[in-house]
Amino acid sequence: MGLEALGLSPMEATVYRVVAEHRTLPIADASALTGLPSTTIDNAVEALLRIGLLVTDPAKPGLLIASPPDLTGRTLLLERSRELHQARLELNALAARFRDVPSEDDPLVETLPGLSVSSRLSEVQSQAEREVLIIDAPPYLTVDDSNPMQIEQMATGVVYRTIYDRLALEAPGGLQRVAKFTAAGEQARLLDHTPGKMLIVDRSYAIIPQQRHIIPSRCGAFLIHQSPLLDVILSLFDILWLYALPIDDTPGGTGTDHSELSAEDSQLLLLLLSGFTDESICRQLGIAKRTVGRRVRMLMDRAGAETRMQLGFQAAQLGWIRAPWRASGLRQADILTASRNIDAGQSTG
Predict the structure, then answer these.
(1) How many CA atoms lie within 13 A of 143 on its CB side?
(2) Confidence band of 73 (pLDDT split at 50, 70, 90)
(3) pLDDT tier at 344 (50, 70, 90 boundaries)?
(4) Nearest Cα to 321, choosing from 240, 254, 262?
(5) Could you tell me the domains of the chain?
(6) Are 248 and 255 in contact (CB under 8 A)?
(7) What is the rounded end-to-end Cα distance, in angstroms, of the chain?
(8) Which terminal residue of the chain, N or C, has fewer Cβ atoms less than 10 Å from its own Cβ?
(9) Once rounded to an integer, what is the mean pLDDT over residues 125-146?
């Protein structure tokens, strides 16, 4: 687009470029250099004079003088930005009224073919202005599911809150992938099991795969617009967020009190509370199963716990984990859910 983004016509942009490159230029020379007819040149010059990109000197008729591009052009750019902002506000207001009008031809749920899922995910995510809510679980669209769009959006101030399914961390490189996003500013939490993957943008749109255990690019997805159905999905996310275990971008990355635990023990505790088996912990941390057992025993001794279930309860009581149920008013019995995950991990590991 170039200068046309300022609202200039292609002819006006051409004339201004030629004059700016010479600082001053007789109108006859501008016509010769651009190859435009005199009538077209006159119309372009008139428009450029009106918006201040060109000026004239009464003492030198026929001489065009370019205004400094970095000053006048920037002013025009700011004005254009304000106009676009106002247009966006009006479009949003119109969209709200548009959605309020019932129509059988306007589905609240779009069915996205598999081949279009990836592009629509990027498109919807790129429109985020405030927040993106994600439930992350395999299988993924790509091998590493790096989602560069997320990194770019967070850099602009868009808030990302992600609930990771335990299987997301069990996947090869799972912990490293989560650490990359949390280091960039993502607010992350972990659940032993999620109902399925989803992406919600500005609480206005949600994308959900049609099938849980198949890559969306193969099975397709649903794009859900603002509706009672979307309200239910948002409520589900908010409830799951309350129950999920926080993951920090701090060295241990577990939502723990690092004055009490080392980064390694914090990471181990996160995996235990999330229901990881000992074998899975070995793979994630790159340590031997005997080492896992020894470190868990040390944590139990420090917490004064006789069983792994007691360790989960004591970890919450001692402040080793910032238990979300404390802030949300959940019952103490909910703490036992995470504790049971520890015993489940041991029994299957």
Answers:
(1) 0
(2) confident
(3) low
(4) 254
(5) 2-70 (1.10.10.10), 109-236 (3.30.870.10), 263-348 (1.10.10)
(6) yes
(7) 59
(8) N
(9) 81
The pLDDT > 70 percentage for the chain reads 83
Three-class DSSP category at 200: strand
Residue 298 to residue 265: CA distance in whole angstroms: 10
Dig out the tokens for 120 from the structure.
């629509």
Tell me the residue length of the chain: 349
Interatomic CA distance for residues 325 and 268, integer angstroms: 21
Euclidean distance between CA atoms 297 and 60, whole angstroms: 91
User: Rounded to an integer, what distance in angstroms lies between the CA atom of residue 89 and that of residue 341?
Assistant: 48
Residues pairing with 322 in the sheet: none
Sheet holding 245-247, edge to edge: 109-112, 221-224, 205-209, 198-201, 131-136, 159-165, 187-191, 245-247
What does each C-alpha distance from 53 to 80, 227, 336 come to in angstroms? 14, 48, 70
Residue 135's closest CA among 33, 229, 230, 241? 241
Angstrom CA distances, 239 to 65, 72, 186, 325, 334, stand at: 64, 52, 19, 11, 13
Secondary structure of residue 104 in the 3-state scheme = coil
Q: Is pLDDT larger for residue 213 or for residue 52?
A: 52
The CA distance from 230 to 205, in Å, is 7
The model's pTM is 0.57
Query: CA 225 to CA 112: how far, in whole Å?
Result: 13
